[in-house]
Design brief:
eleven-stranded mixed β-sheet; two-stranded antiparallel sheet; alpha/beta; 8 helices
Length: 225
């Protein structure tokens, strides 16, 4: 059975923009969940600045690209294509042609839980792509099935259509659409604290800065006695 949802609810673009100003690493100071590390989904080339966009999701059989191409019909500017190919390592489901289509449609990035190909062309195009692997062997147009704009799972993180993907060179954060205000509050607080720590380190120097953790170290020693 094939499920295709042609439209999704997208979040307020201004909120998405604000999410994209905070790196997943900033969120990582205060959150322990909703992350996909760069060791699981590798950026094809260094990502210099963080970005964010709503997810258009597609789930495909490991060797069939038809639903990937169909999903591109529903891309709107700023969207992020999220493909769950079950961490397939052999059959690449994303390459130069799909990238050029996605770019023309205004997509911000592609997250591929599977293999990609045409890596030099993708790098030269400058389109942000994360993937599980790279392969010269490509998927075919078999029409075996798949689903578009349904919940998918990558590295244990569930992504709903319209959830916001926040990306950087360190990895990805998945922000549930109905929790954006809470995540923004956490992210802004974490970013401010990180900036303050860097400023303090610059002003105080390493030796003085390190003393702020002495009390925690002493507490740990007391607990160990």
């Amino acid at each position: 059975m094939i499920t295709i949802n042609t439209s999704i609810k997208r979040p307020d673009p201004e909120l998405v923009r604000q999410l994209g100003e905070i790196t997943p690493s900033d969120y990582g100071h205060q959150l322990n969940y909703q992350f996909i590390s760069a060791s699981k989904m590798k950026p094809l080339f260094p990502i210099e600045t963080p970005f964010a966009g709503p997810a258009v999701t597609v789930r495909i059989p490991p060797n069939d690209v038809l639903l990937t191409c169909k999903a591109l019909d529903y891309i709107q500017p700023g969207d992020i294509v999220v493909i769950d190919a079950s961490a397939e390592e052999r059959y690449a489901c994303w390459g130069e042609v799909t990238t050029r289509i996605a770019m023309e449609k205004g997509a911000a990035a592609a997250i591929v839980n599977g293999a990609i190909t045409d890596t030099i062309a993708l790098r030269d195009l400058g389109f942000k792509v994360y993937s599980h692997s790279v392969s010269p062997l490509t998927t075919k147009f078999y029409g075996l099935g798949g689903d578009i704009n349904v919940p998918v799972s990558i590295s244990g993180c569930v992504i709903q259509p319209g959830d916001v993907i926040v990306g950087s060179n360190d990895g990805l954060l998945v922000v549930p659409q109905d929790e954006i205000p809470a995540y923004l509050k956490i992210g802004k607080s974490a970013k401010e604290l990180d900036e303050q720590n860097l400023q303090d380190l610059k002003m105080l120097g390493a030796e003085t800065f390190l003393r702020r953790w002495d009390s925690k170290w002493e507490d740990m020693l007391e607990k160990d006695e």
